[in-house]
Amino acid sequence: MTAKDLSHLLSIEAKTRRPSPLKTAFKYYGKPDIVFLGGGLPMSDYFPWDKVLAYSPEPPFADGIAAKPTEGKAVISELHKHKIEEFDVPLARSLQYGHTEGQPELLKFVKEHTALIHKIPNEEWDVVLSVGNTQAWDATLRTFCDPGDSILVEEYSFPSALETASPFQVDYVPVPMDNGGIIPEKLEELFENWDASNKKPKLLYTIATGQNPTGSSLSAERREAIYKIACKHDFLIVEDEPYYFLQMNDYKQGASEDPKHSYDEPKQTHEEFLAALVPSFSHLDTEGRVVRLDSFSKVLAPGVRLGWIVAQKKLLERYVRLHEVSIQTPSGFTQSLVQGLLGRWGQSGYVDWLIALRKEYTIKRDFTIDVLHKNMPKDVVEFFPPSAGMFFTVVLDASKHPDFKTKFASDPIKVETAIYEAGLEKGCLMIPGSWFQSPNFKPHDNTFFFRGTYAAVPLDQLKVGLERFGEAVKTVYGL
């Protein structure tokens, strides 16, 4: 299928940005018949790194992803100034200027991975590397938004993403959510009631899987409905998906009793794993109106600061022009190191890693829900097992506090603050849900929530923290 021309959605900045004349000359760099005297490139002989060694676990990770590499059971990435393996990115090249889109070997791996997972239906998609999803989101805003434009956001969203948009002087339009994420019917209502004198929103920003902060995930049916609305009303969908591969099996009770053996199902085959993943917006993208922000942050390590943007080629060209005068390219060390590992794992080994990662998060999610069942007062608290991601929420009803109207003046935020402070006193920090409210969002009722994560600490500390938070809730409510 052919992607639609969506250049009318570009920002003034993106439309007016021209290729750097110096960058256009770099296509001649390295050609054997050209003596390249045109760029300020230091000779790689002067780079003080000749070899970098990295030891990593070996697929299929039968002992888990946390097992330390041992003699004979390690993948050794030996990175040299010049190539060893065909898939390696030599340090002489990765530490040099150039390759704004990303090193070719890593781009090839990421593009093959994207095709394997998402099977994008339009033929005009491509990928460019980013310095993680925060930078990719900033570049997206610069590429599409002008002051006064509107963007659709989930009514609760990641504060850093919202703050990234703030200097662009955009107007936020919160979209109602429930435990399943964005409600498509409510999104359609926003457009049905839209003031015709105002420009319609240019894009929807969504953390569609394992949403931060709510832990919700959009079903395949909701994604299809939202995509149809985007086509009807001509806006882009920006899917920020760092948690996509942290999709988990259904919750099973009993993990808190014996967490190491609570997940003893046979290991999934690659086919079973891929079939169980909820289809992405990119998988539905017949018109080329999805911009996917992908990242290694939650599946390898946040500090690699490496991700990639998936979109139609005409739009990605505008990102490249922006990157030429901003990030230039992601860290050369990171690109060589990550590609050195992925090249040795191969696509199959990387899927093995993702399957093993899924198992670890399923265990921690199940453990968390078990401990919540044992420690939370059910008459004032609700919680639901997330199907993906790193986060869970504890939802409370402020109106059930005996002094809600008197001591707290019928203000749920005051109850939330009291629990937050009680939690700190008892030695547990959970984040108040009000910190994640999108601008212009008005709460519907007297409920509020706290966001927690099961990703940051081992199980024994997780249990202690949840028990302490349960005590804080009981103390504030007088239970």
TrEMBL record:
Q: Which reaction does it catalyse?
A: an aromatic L-alpha-amino acid + 2-oxoglutarate = an aromatic oxo-acid + L-glutamate
Give a Pfam family name: Aminotran_1_2
State the SUPFAM superfamilies in the record: PLP-dependent transferases
Q: Does the keyword RNA-binding apply?
A: no
GO cellular component terms, A-Z: cytoplasm
UniProt main location, coarse: cytoplasm
**Where does the Aminotransferase class I/classII large domain lie?**
96-469
Look up keyword Transferase and say if it applies.
Answer: yes
Enzyme type, top EC level: transferase
InterPro entries recorded: Aminotransferase_I/II_large (IPR004839), Class-I_PLP-dep_aminotransf (IPR050859), PyrdxlP-dep_Trfase (IPR015424), PyrdxlP-dep_Trfase_major (IPR015421)
**Subcellular location as annotated:** Cytoplasm
What are the EC numbers? Answer: 2.6.1.57
Name the keywords, alphabetized.
Aminotransferase, Cytoplasm, Pyridoxal phosphate, Transferase
CDD domains assigned to the protein according to its UniProt record, in alphabetical order: AAT_like
Supply one GO BP term. tyrosine biosynthetic process
| GO terms of molecular function | 2-aminoadipate transaminase activity; aromatic-amino-acid transaminase activity; pyridoxal phosphate binding
Required co-factors: pyridoxal 5'-phosphate
Q: Which family does it belong to?
A: Belongs to the class-I pyridoxal-phosphate-dependent aminotransferase family.
Q: What is this protein called?
A: aromatic-amino-acid transaminase
Recorded source organism is Ambrosiozyma monospora
Q: Source organism lineage?
A: Eukaryota, Fungi, Dikarya, Ascomycota, Saccharomycotina
